[in-house]
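For concreteness, we quote verbatim a single protein encoded this way:
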Amino acid sequence: MTLPEPRVRKGDTQPVIFVVEDQPELVRALRINLRARQYEVLAARTGREALALAASRPPDAIILDLGLPDIDGTEVIVELRRWSKVPIIVLSGRSSPGDKIGALDVGADDYVTKPFAMAELMARLRAALRRDEGEFAADAPRTVAIGRWLVDLAAHQVTPGSGDGGEQLRLTPTEWRILEMLLHSPGQLVGSAQLLTGVWGPGFQQRTNYLRFHMARLRRKLEDNPARPCHLLTESGMGYRYQP
C-alpha cells in the first residue's frame, strides 16, 4: 500500500508532530503510524510537559488528548493560542457536543473521538497541515470593512473604523477561520460543506449546527443589526455569503 506524502518543510526536513497523550499503548500506535508516513514524532505525557516542549521546539502539528494527568487539554489549547497558530487536533474520549464545541472554540482545529480509525486521523492531520501552509490566494484583500469595523486579515485584528473610538474586537480562532473563508470570496456563495471542511476538516460536512452557532456570534459582534445582517448573509439550504 502506498502511503500519501505528508507536507515537507523547507530544507526537506520531516514535519514534526507532537503527541500529547498519557496512554503508552496509544502513544506507541500513533508513533508507529506517524513514522511510517515520514513524520518525526515527539511525545509528552502531561500538559505542562507539552507546553514546555512546544516552546523549545515548535512543532508542525499537535495531536492532543483532553484528559491529561495534570491540566485539562483545553487549558493547553488556550495557553498555546497565546503565542502559536500550530494546528491542533484533539483526540479524546469525550464525545458530547459541548466538549467538541468548547475545544474548537478555544482554538482546536479539529476533533476526533476515541475509539477512532487511524486512517481518518491521518487524513485529518494532512488536512490540518495543508491549511497551515496557506489556503488563500496571495492577492486576497488585506483589510475589509464590515459595518463600523475594519477587519485586517493579515494582522488578525478587528478595529473600529475611521473616526470611531473603542477597543479592538476579539474573535475566537474558529470565528477567524470562518470569516477568512467568507471574506476571501466577496459576493460569492460559500457552501456549508466547504466551510465545514475548511474549518473543521473532513467528516464534518453535516454539522451545520456548528456554522449556525458561530455565524450567529459573528453577526452579534460585527453587524450593526444582527437580526437584519447586511454583510454576513445566509443562503438558506446552501451556505453563506459575505456581501461587501
In short: The mean pLDDT is 84. The CA atoms of residues 156 and 176 lie 8 Å apart. Helices lie at 24-36, 47-56, 73-80, 97-105, 118-133, 173-183, 192-200, 208-222.
